[in-house]
Amino acid sequence: MVRAVNRTDRLYALVEELRAIAPRPRSAHWLARRFEISARTVERDLSALQQSGVPIYAEPGRTGGYCLDKARTLPPVNLTPGEAVAMALALHRMAGTPFQAEAAAGLRKLVAAMPAADVALADELAGRIHLVVKPSPLPEPPPMPRLVADALAARRVLRIRYGDRSGATTEREIEPLGYVGNKYWYLVAWCRLRGSVRAFRTDRISGVTRTAEVPPQRVLSDDDLDIPNHLVHHLTLV
């Protein structure tokens, strides 16, 4: 039996135990004996991991238990305390962006895979970082609606209620094509009402419904953005 030092260590150890035997399951009672805790605590910990995005699922039956989708999880990641703090700092610049929630979930997964000692060092380092919020004449954008933030990944036609700069409201069906972002974020889409590409400022979308319709394949070109090429930078992963 192995007793985890604290809950952070235990959550990490639970993931690694399930990863080691995946795709076979482990029962809550087996895990409880392994980590010298109650089955209820195991189920609570596994629920917390599921809510943070770890792909753990229950397999019913007499020989069932909890399984980890090994293909959708990272092996242990050697994230340094400095790297963890740098990522947390970057999150402060993502308010109102389409990927704010995904970035926060990704950081939680990486921190969960860090050794407890490194997490403590990262917390101590983060506590010495002080952010100055400068007053701005422009209001902070509200959180982006979930269906708008997921528009590109979902690949579905959206039905939106949109208010333009003059305050006039229209209802439209749009085919999402991309995002343009700076202070404000815009969903670039083929607008069926106008029959052309339009950019919709996301904080002016007052209602959104995702339809079941898959839009036709369209390619968004730099010319469609109507922005000087030297001002546009395409996001890359590396």
Instruction: Please tell me the overall pLDDT.
Output: 83
Largest sheet: 5 strands, antiparallel
Give the CATH class of the largest domain: Mainly Beta
Query: Would you give the CATH topology of the largest domain?
Result: SH3 type barrels
Overall shape: it is: globular
How many distinct helices? 9
Distance between the termini: 42 Å
Order of helices and strands: HHHEEHHHHHEEEEEH
- The helix content is 25-40%
Structural class: alpha+beta
Strand content: 15-25%
Query: Going across the major beta sheet, what is the strand order?
Result: 6-5-4-3-7
Number of strands: 7
Count of discrete structural domains: 3
Q: Which CATH architecture of the largest domain? A: Roll
Question: What's the Cα radius of gyration?
Answer: 23 Å
Low-pLDDT stretches = none
Please tag this protein with its features.
SH3 type barrels, 238 residues, globular, alpha+beta
What does this structure look like?
By secondary structure, the chain is an alpha+beta fold. The chain folds into 3 domains: 7-72, Orthogonal Bundle (Arc Repressor Mutant, subunit A); 81-126, no CATH class; 146-231, SH3 type barrels (Roll), CATH 2.30.30. The protein is built from 9 helices and 7 strands. The chain has helices at residues 7-21, 28-35, 39-51, 81-91, 100-112, 116-126, 146-149, 151-154, 222-225, and strands spanning 56-59, 65-68, 158-163, 169-181, 185-191, 196-201, 205-210. A 5-stranded antiparallel β-sheet has the order 6-5-4-3-7, with no helix packed on it. The chain has a two-stranded antiparallel ribbon with strand order 1-2. A hairpin with a 5-residue loop joins β3 and β4. The longest helix has 15 residues, at 7-21.
